[in-house]
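#structure-requests
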Amino acid sequence: MVNPGAVSLPVPPWSWGVLGGVVLLSLAVDLLLHRGDREQGRLWACAWSVVWITLGLLFGLWVDYQFGRSAAEEYLSAYLIEKSLSVDNLFVFLIVFSRLQIPKAEQHRVLQWGIIGAFVTRAVFIAAGTTLLAAWHGMIYPLGAFLIYTGYKTATDHPDETNEGLVLPFVRKHFPFSRHVRGHHFFVREDGRWVATPLFLALIVIEFTDIVFAIDSLPAVFAVSVNPFIVYSSNVFAILGMRALFLTLADLLTDLKYLRYGLAAIMIFAGLKMLGSKLVQLSHLTSLLTVAGILVTAILPSLLAKRLKPQP
């Protein structure tokens, strides 16, 4: 259940310093190793996906050492929920890059700035959410109902380009832009004026969709923890690996035909957990195993269906 006392977990200020230091060092190393305009292969992206996941798990071990097993289970559950739900956002990235014809060599640059922007917006949303839940614990019930509705819509709606289709025409209308990618520049001069390039349009759409995604995913994370440090750190480490995860799964996303139902089930599970928090108290380990089981149940049939599909 949502633990009302989770916000009372003593988190010394230096713990936030440790989190900030690890994140800044990770970003610096990532920027250093990915500088230049050469396209990164899938093997490189797979290796970095392993690195980011390992880093997230190691931070979970540090949380276990510093704050205890219960806090570590909260962190791992929140991390797994955020990591799994972030896959849904990768579909939008795929659509945006395809629609704007962003070269693969430049996609990592757009995603890098998008990740940095996500750190800021998540901090604002998490601060507001935890403050609201601390002041009024009854807020978990409308949040739970919202999650169930979102899960239902995720399972029943056909995958579309709603977010991209709303924001892209608006940006094109209000910003002068070039129709051609000009190296790695977000703005260039044409006919004596500054115009945006497709890289900037892609960045704006990605930032907007991340805000929409956060509105869906953060309530699910609040179902397992309302401690700001646990929620934010789990989000940060899940987001850090999104770029490598996208480059790894870009060619496989359309083949994971049942994944959307698994993501919907996770949101519905989190919503039911919120609504029934007064009646049924699930341990953090039970929540963690449930989310993992849902993911396996959704991914394995998708891979099997792809393997059994007749090849042209």
